[in-house]
Amino acid sequence: MNSISENIEIIKNEIKEICNKKGMNYDEITLIAVTKTIGIMRIKEAIASGINDIGENKVQEIMDKYEDLKELSNFHLIGHLQSNKVKYIIDKVKLIHSVDSLSLMDEINKRAKKAETIANILIQINVAREDTKFGIGIEELDSYIEYASKLDSIRVQGLMTIAPYFEDAEEARSIFRNLKSKYDELSKRDYGNIEMKFLSMGMTNDYKIALEEGSNMIRVGTGIFGKRIYNL
Questions:
Q1: CA–CA dist 54, 232 (Å, integer)
Q2: Taking 50 as the threshold, does the pLDDT of residue 232 lie above it?
Q3: Which of the four, 22, 27, 102, 209, has the lowest number of CB atoms within 10 Å?
């Protein structure tokens, strides 16, 4: 079994290979280590191996780890966010990936204003329309962008999706391609507080396909830390 540093090296080399093949800039790809259930020491090992960004699914885990890691890494909230928990992380995260309702957008805007900060967010799209996943339909996106453009304490920085799990990751390609097409379309529009800077798609199983289809932000947990052991 590889060490954390070996796994990170393998992933970075794969990213470089894909960037070379597709004519992409390696320096513009963000590798987020997904640290759900991972302890501080192992996270620090990943940071020492060149990880600058960590992603948490739960607000509580950000709260638990923040003091130990705030000087070492950027935090990303990548899991579903309930409106009543926004206040706890509004000044702690670099990016909220999972904005999937107008009411959540309103709450983030309100809490950011109160904290005298600007909240950077991604809008989560459920491209495959899976009942088990959060996110808006791709056809709703234009109205969300229009709504967000009127809020003064948030900045939309791109889009996020979670593809269904396929044994053959190739099956996710059309999902990533569809979202990249919409991302490119939005990139041509001009709103003051909206910029298509990040396209967050691709996880351990399918990040290579996502990168090939234009992702510039991948979220990898098991591929870095190995299979998670959950406390029963």
A1: 24
A2: no
A3: 27
Domain ranges of the chain: 4-224
Confidence of residue 230 (pLDDT cuts 50, 70, 90): low
Burial class (CB in 10 A: 0-12, 13-18, 19+), 22: exposed
pTM over cut 0.90 = yes
DSSP 84-109: GGHHHHTTT-SEEEEE--HHHHHHHH
- CATH H superfamily, domain 4-224: Alanine racemase (3.20.20.10)
Q: What CA–CA distance (Å, rounded) separates 30 from 216?
A: 6
pLDDT exceeds cutoff 90 at 93 = yes
Q: Long-range pairs for 20-25 at CB < 8 Å and ≥24 separation?
A: 21/212, 22/211, 22/212, 24/211, 24/216
| Closest alpha carbon to 201 in 153, 145, 142, 160 | 160
- Rounded to whole angstroms, the Cα distance separating 218 from 11 reads 11
Cα separation, 61 vs 77, in Å, equals 10
Q: Which of 145, 106, 140 is nearest to 125 (CA)?
A: 140
The pLDDT, as a whole number, for residue 128 is 82
Q: Tell how strand 30-34 and strand 119-124 pair up.
A: unpaired
Residue that is written with structure tokens 């900045």 in the block: 155
The token pair that represents 55 in the structure block:
């992603």
* pLDDT tens digits, one per residue of 162-203: 999 998 999 999 999 999 999 999 999 988 899 999 999 999
178 Rama class: left (phi>0) / alpha (psi -120 to 50) / beta: alpha
